Amino acid sequence: MGNTIQLNYSILGPERQKAIEKGLVSGEWYQCSVPRKRMKELMIRKNGPAIRDTLLWIALTVVLGYVAYLSWGSWWAVPVFIVYGTVYTVPAVSKWHESSHGTMFRTAWMNEALYQFTSFLILIQATNFRWTHARHHTDTIIVGSDPEIMEPRPPKLQRVLRYIIRESFIYNTWPYLFKHAIGLLSAEEKELVPTSEQRKLFLEARVFIIIYAVIISLCFYLDSILPLMFVGLPAFYGALLNGLLVSTQHVGLYEDTLDHRLCARTFYTNRILRFLYTNMNYHIEHHMFPLVPYYNLPALHEEIKHDCPVAASSFTAAVRETWGAIWKMRKDHSYIVPRCREFAEHRKVIDRNLSSVSQSG
After folding, report:
1. Which tens digits make up the pLDDT trace of 119-150?
2. Is residue 341 included in any domain, yes or no?
3. Which residues are in the Fatty acid desaturase domain (predicted)?
4. Does residue 164 sit in helix, strand or coil?
5. Structural domain count of the chain
6. Does any domain span residue 3?
7. Exposure string for 323-344, b = 16+ CB within 10 A, e = fewer
8. Model confidence, pTM
9. Which of 12, 137, 182, 336 is deepest in the core (most CB within 10 A)?
10. DSSP string, 285-324
């Protein structure tokens, strides 16, 4: 049985200083070799693909919303609204994430407009996430420094399931919004969000509260929860698929390493899921080269796959691997999925051989 010591994952805890002393905070990450000219091509941002995909998502959501409206009052509303909520939530979250990087569109204001719009849809403030996610990319799965580690080791199944269905967000969203609206921040937020950005965070919270107050008032006026079923609540009742997708990104892989190949997971999937997920299944590629737009990630994958672990064969395979790891990590704190561990050992052999050749030369 492996180590079962529970570490302190807080970014304000003792593990932060240990990570600094180990050189893991703001460290120099491994990058696969890509020809400079090719990388410049892959980093080109275009408005066309992002506009096309965004409009298609909005159109699909409107159509499904109309079908859901027609089903209201019958048992058909249950499956139809689940489909509507899923199509609302998964692309909203993935496009929110991508636009936070400023890489979806060539035109800067388009990125910001979509970022603020999707933040409103999923009830997570743009300014807050921009800075927590910047830290996540700087110190990916570094214990004590990354605020976005989904599940500490050893995991607790109840906590994981609550995260997957966003149950904990239901209780935390509004208290946080009201605190931000009156100018209060948590200790971690003070650590992550620069003072110059905090007024923007407070303004966003006030705008959220005002608009959702209007929607809630409309519910009372109509004597129906239906308006919230279309805006706001889908981010919760439609969260299951998104939660499963997010769980595949890093769980069961290495912590405290400066190699994205060992702490992020890429998997293959069909075009429909790639469209909904905005190509975030190419997660090693996204973390290693975060300035590459989502529509170029498949091409980037082809450039570097020879130097990465073999991608999980499907979304189902990635979920099985992730949840198998969660089950094993409950007792074995140090468990790493075999596919990743084997790659790490293989790289050690190659690096030792290269070092020997270099020294003999």
Report:
1. 999 999 999 999 999 999 999 999 999 999 99
2. yes
3. 74-310
4. helix
5. 1
6. no
7. bebbebbeeebebbbebbeebb
8. 0.93
9. 336
10. HHHHSTTS-GGGHHHHHHHHGGGSPPPBSSHHHHHHHHHH
